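Record type: monomer structure entry
Structure origin: computed from sequence
Chain ID: A
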Amino acid sequence: MTFMDYQIKYENNVSDKSCTLLLTQLIKTMSTSNEGDIFRITTTDRESMIDIPLYCKLTGNKLIYSLMDEVMYIYFIEKSH
């Protein structure tokens, strides 16, 4: 299965925000979502390469796919509980 096969429930483009603000916004949105919901996060913050996978590991949510180039980072996260 590729990222194109997932039905995205929430999309968040935070390309102009730091990873701290990105995570704060993600935590708030995930707290009101349902198990199995898919989130697509887009950012330009290089620190997201560390922070997003760590966030998923600590919260038990599943990082199902990530895309990265020199400028843009895109993550697909499934809410696990």
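Annotation 1: The chain has one domain: 3-78.
Annotation 2: Strands lie at 10-13, 38-43, 62-68, 73-78.
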